[in-house]
Amino acid sequence: MSAETDTPQSEIPALTAREIECIRFAAQGLTTGETAQCISVTERTVEFHLGNATRKLGASNKLRAVVIALQLRLIEL
Predict the structure, then answer these.
(1) Cα–Cα distance between 19 and 45 in angstroms, integer?
(2) Exposure check for the chain: N or C terminus, fewer CB within 10 A?
(3) Burial category of 22 from C-beta neighbours within 10 Å (exposed 0-12, middle 13-18, buried 19 and up)
(4) CA dist 21 to 1, 4, 10, 47, 58, Å?
(5) Per-residue pLDDT tens for 13-32?
(6) Whole-angstrom Cα distance, residue 11 to residue 1?
(7) What are 42-72's pLDDT values in tens digits?
(8) Are 26 and 36 contacting, i.e. CB atoms less than 8 angstroms apart?
(9) How far, in Å, CA of 2 to CA of 72, rounded?
(10) Cβ–Cβ contacts within 10 Å for residue 66, how many?
(11) What is the DSSP letter of 72?
């Protein structure tokens, strides 16, 4: 188990590359619109990926998902 998250390594959720990319942009403070422009998709698509990542991480919102992803070292700043 990780001391920071109390999540066993085998239970770290598998996020897609696009979900990780969207979470990484959110961690950098970009809005869904700005993220959409950066990765050439619609804002709704970014919201879809962030929603999936948030759900997989068991987070209540996007900010909490970013914190969990950082704690699990799925993303870095």
Answers:
(1) 10
(2) C
(3) buried
(4) 25, 23, 22, 12, 18
(5) 999 999 999 999 999 999 99
(6) 9
(7) 999 999 999 999 999 999 999 999 999 999 9
(8) no
(9) 8
(10) 25
(11) T
